[in-house]
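Final report, closing paragraph on structural work. Over the funding period we assembled a curated collection of sequence-structure pairs, and we close with a single example.
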Amino acid sequence: MKRVLMFAGIALCLFSPALLSGQETGLLRLDEKHRAPRNEISLWSGIEDGRFRPIFEPYFQWSAGTEARLVRHGAHASWTGSISLEQKSGKYNRSSLFVEPDYFPMDLLDYTSGTGSRQTGRLETGFLADLSYLWAMGLNATIKATNDSRRSAFRHSSFGMEAELEPVLTFRSDDDACIVSSYLVRLRTERVKMDPSNVDAEGVLPFFFDKGMGYGASVYDPDQGIFPVLEFAHGFNEEYHSPEFSGGFGIVWKRGRAGDGDYSRFRFPGSTLKGFFETLREGFEVDRTYRISYQRMRDQLREILDSGDGYESDSDRVGRSVDFKVGFLPHKGVLKSITLDLDGNYWIESAAARVISDQTQRLDASATLLASLSMEDIDVDLNVMGGKGFWLDRGQVDNPLAQEVRLTENWLSKMEYYMAPRIGMGGALTYRFPAVEGLSLQLFGYWTRAFNATYLGGKNRETVTLKVEYNY
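Its predicted structure, as stored:
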């Protein structure tokens, strides 16, 4: 059982597996039931500065937050929970009106300069109770709320909520193997509100509606200045742990509606398929860990026909990503772990609105070297990264006037961030106060440098964060 516990700990903490949440709750009873509880509380604050960033992120941002976590073990049940609050403020030169840009296949854009403020709260809880010596059952529940407001030439605000329930069933065999099964149900809503006083001389709200690849309506006027979004998702995850290897897979189906007061103007179905395999090889002086994961995501955007009878496709995007990690865990010495992470992504995005047809393909890859060192009361984590991408637009066909309904520079800026060659380096320095057990101070810094960047207006991005944490 110790090997299973060690392997599960490495999988959850070092490699951040693709199947988490309910799967993490499903492993609670593998741990020693009578060990001391794990509780922690942390406070942090930091800044980000630089023009090389996702186009809808602020070029300067200040953030602060707090988080509390706990894990409790009883004789026949275990509980885990966390609560976090975060505040972000930044300066934008363009922005998405949605809480999470690029999540939905459509977007509402404000391309003026201004400032923004975002508050995010998250509450998660989970429990797992023994049904017998071999079986355990539990539930993981999460709720998240985000409020985002922007002050620019045209004021607007967004409020989003996400709730997820994931029942979990765990089976543990006598040979130290474990199977965790879970089924998730997720509901996500978002409501974008634009101030009616924002209307231009023609009496409409001058926000660009992106239907995919930067194509859309140059002036979009939602019903009463409100654009609602509703998405329902459900799926399952399966995970297997043993002393020799672990693996898992999961699939989630999504159905979304948006626009007008009754969410009837747009539909956006989608799905996500993911899986992973990992193994731990013990050695005399160094243990080796290997992990490979795969994910496929697809969604579409469909718009109601002018006749009101059915929907037609506006855009379609399919993404695939493969990630391979190899790690080394020395038994002795200052070096605690060193990991090489190779990541590749391939996307095909198509736009097929009423007057245009276009397609783009992009491929990007990165390599990251991570190292963790420990010296008495000081821990050091280092990170060095390099990446590059390639992309190709087929070019619009059908109607040559379609260029008039595309934010070309905005699209080029977006692709430049994904594809530009870059390097990055940084790390975290953690000091544990010997006079106060469990109290630590962490300083994190990271610098990214891009090459051949033109449209974003800069090639650098710096991040600095200070964090205080107390474990008890």
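The longest helix spans residues 2-13. DSSP finds three helices and 24 strands in the chain. We thank the funder for supporting this effort.
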